Known about the structure:
Elements: H1 9-24, H2 28-48, H3 55-78, H4 86-108, H5 116-130, H6 134-138
Helix pairs in contact: 1-3, 2-3, 2-5, 3-4
Amino acid sequence: MSSKKPSNPYAAAASAYGTHAQQHTPDQRETEARVLLKAAQMFKDLQNDWDNSNLEVIEATLKYNRNIWLMFYDTAVENAEGNRPKDLRSNIVNLANFIFKREIDIMSDPKKEKLDVLININREIAAGLMTKPPAAEEQPKK
Protein backbone atom coordinates (compact mmCIF):
# COMPACT_ATOMS: atom_id res chain seq x y z
CA MET A 1 0.00 0.00 0.00
CA SER A 2 1.37 3.37 -1.02
CA SER A 3 1.76 6.16 1.54
CA LYS A 4 1.51 8.89 -1.08
CA LYS A 5 0.90 12.29 0.52
CA PRO A 6 -1.60 14.75 -1.03
CA SER A 7 0.07 17.28 -3.32
CA ASN A 8 -1.37 20.35 -1.65
CA PRO A 9 -2.29 21.53 1.85
CA TYR A 10 -6.02 21.79 1.03
CA ALA A 11 -6.08 18.14 -0.02
CA ALA A 12 -4.25 17.23 3.19
CA ALA A 13 -6.87 19.11 5.20
CA ALA A 14 -9.68 17.45 3.24
CA SER A 15 -8.12 14.05 3.84
CA ALA A 16 -7.67 14.75 7.54
CA TYR A 17 -11.24 16.01 7.72
CA GLY A 18 -12.54 12.88 6.02
CA THR A 19 -10.58 10.56 8.28
CA HIS A 20 -11.58 12.45 11.42
CA ALA A 21 -15.24 12.66 10.37
CA GLN A 22 -15.42 8.92 9.67
CA GLN A 23 -13.90 8.07 13.04
CA HIS A 24 -15.76 10.56 15.22
CA THR A 25 -19.19 11.08 13.72
CA PRO A 26 -21.94 8.61 13.08
CA ASP A 27 -22.70 10.03 9.63
CA GLN A 28 -20.25 12.09 7.58
CA ARG A 29 -22.98 13.13 5.14
CA GLU A 30 -24.99 14.67 7.98
CA THR A 31 -21.93 16.53 9.24
CA GLU A 32 -21.25 17.95 5.78
CA ALA A 33 -24.91 18.96 5.47
CA ARG A 34 -24.82 20.76 8.82
CA VAL A 35 -21.70 22.69 7.82
CA LEU A 36 -23.34 23.76 4.55
CA LEU A 37 -26.49 24.82 6.41
CA LYS A 38 -24.37 26.84 8.82
CA ALA A 39 -22.75 28.65 5.89
CA ALA A 40 -26.18 29.30 4.34
CA GLN A 41 -27.40 30.74 7.64
CA MET A 42 -24.29 32.93 7.89
CA PHE A 43 -25.08 34.30 4.42
CA LYS A 44 -28.72 34.89 5.40
CA ASP A 45 -27.63 36.69 8.58
CA LEU A 46 -25.24 38.81 6.52
CA GLN A 47 -28.05 39.74 4.13
CA ASN A 48 -30.35 40.65 7.00
CA ASP A 49 -27.73 42.94 8.55
CA TRP A 50 -26.20 44.14 5.28
CA ASP A 51 -26.35 47.84 6.15
CA ASN A 52 -24.21 47.27 9.25
CA SER A 53 -21.70 44.99 7.50
CA ASN A 54 -18.33 45.89 6.06
CA LEU A 55 -15.92 44.19 3.65
CA GLU A 56 -14.16 42.40 6.50
CA VAL A 57 -17.40 40.74 7.63
CA ILE A 58 -18.34 39.87 4.03
CA GLU A 59 -14.90 38.36 3.38
CA ALA A 60 -14.98 36.32 6.61
CA THR A 61 -18.37 34.86 5.70
CA LEU A 62 -17.26 34.08 2.14
CA LYS A 63 -14.04 32.53 3.46
CA TYR A 64 -15.97 30.14 5.70
CA ASN A 65 -17.99 28.97 2.71
CA ARG A 66 -14.93 28.83 0.46
CA ASN A 67 -13.11 26.57 2.93
CA ILE A 68 -16.02 24.12 2.87
CA TRP A 69 -16.06 24.06 -0.91
CA LEU A 70 -12.26 23.78 -1.10
CA MET A 71 -12.51 20.56 0.90
CA PHE A 72 -15.22 19.22 -1.42
CA TYR A 73 -13.20 20.29 -4.46
CA ASP A 74 -9.92 18.84 -3.26
CA THR A 75 -11.52 15.58 -2.19
CA ALA A 76 -13.11 15.23 -5.63
CA VAL A 77 -9.83 16.00 -7.44
CA GLU A 78 -7.38 14.13 -5.21
CA ASN A 79 -9.53 11.05 -4.56
CA ALA A 80 -10.09 9.91 -8.14
CA GLU A 81 -10.09 6.22 -7.18
CA GLY A 82 -12.49 6.78 -4.26
CA ASN A 83 -16.06 5.58 -3.99
CA ARG A 84 -17.60 8.56 -5.80
CA PRO A 85 -18.52 8.13 -9.47
CA LYS A 86 -16.56 10.20 -11.99
CA ASP A 87 -19.67 12.21 -12.95
CA LEU A 88 -20.31 13.15 -9.33
CA ARG A 89 -16.69 14.23 -8.84
CA SER A 90 -16.90 16.31 -12.01
CA ASN A 91 -20.12 17.95 -10.84
CA ILE A 92 -18.57 18.80 -7.47
CA VAL A 93 -15.56 20.40 -9.17
CA ASN A 94 -17.76 22.42 -11.55
CA LEU A 95 -20.06 23.58 -8.76
CA ALA A 96 -17.10 24.57 -6.58
CA ASN A 97 -15.60 26.55 -9.47
CA PHE A 98 -18.91 28.37 -9.91
CA ILE A 99 -19.00 29.19 -6.19
CA PHE A 100 -15.41 30.47 -6.21
CA LYS A 101 -16.17 32.74 -9.19
CA ARG A 102 -19.34 34.00 -7.53
CA GLU A 103 -17.41 34.87 -4.38
CA ILE A 104 -14.91 36.88 -6.42
CA ASP A 105 -17.83 38.69 -8.06
CA ILE A 106 -19.33 39.47 -4.65
CA MET A 107 -16.03 40.84 -3.33
CA SER A 108 -15.50 43.00 -6.42
CA ASP A 109 -19.05 44.41 -6.33
CA PRO A 110 -20.74 43.60 -3.00
CA LYS A 111 -24.53 43.34 -3.19
CA LYS A 112 -26.61 41.33 -0.77
CA GLU A 113 -28.76 39.88 -3.57
CA LYS A 114 -25.70 38.09 -4.96
CA LEU A 115 -25.66 35.88 -1.86
CA ASP A 116 -29.01 34.29 -2.79
CA VAL A 117 -27.45 31.77 -5.18
CA LEU A 118 -24.88 30.66 -2.58
CA ILE A 119 -27.60 30.25 0.04
CA ASN A 120 -29.70 28.19 -2.36
CA ILE A 121 -26.80 25.97 -3.48
CA ASN A 122 -25.71 25.23 0.09
CA ARG A 123 -29.27 24.45 1.19
CA GLU A 124 -29.96 22.20 -1.80
CA ILE A 125 -26.70 20.26 -1.42
CA ALA A 126 -27.34 19.92 2.33
CA ALA A 127 -30.84 18.57 1.64
CA GLY A 128 -29.34 16.01 -0.75
CA LEU A 129 -26.73 14.98 1.81
CA MET A 130 -29.40 14.50 4.47
CA THR A 131 -31.31 12.14 2.19
CA LYS A 132 -30.07 8.59 2.63
CA PRO A 133 -28.76 7.02 -0.58
CA PRO A 134 -30.77 3.97 -1.74
CA ALA A 135 -27.97 1.54 -0.85
CA ALA A 136 -27.85 2.85 2.73
CA GLU A 137 -31.63 2.52 3.12
CA GLU A 138 -31.60 -1.13 2.07
CA GLN A 139 -28.94 -2.22 4.55
CA PRO A 140 -30.31 -3.49 7.88
CA LYS A 141 -29.18 -1.57 10.98
CA LYS A 142 -26.84 -3.41 13.31
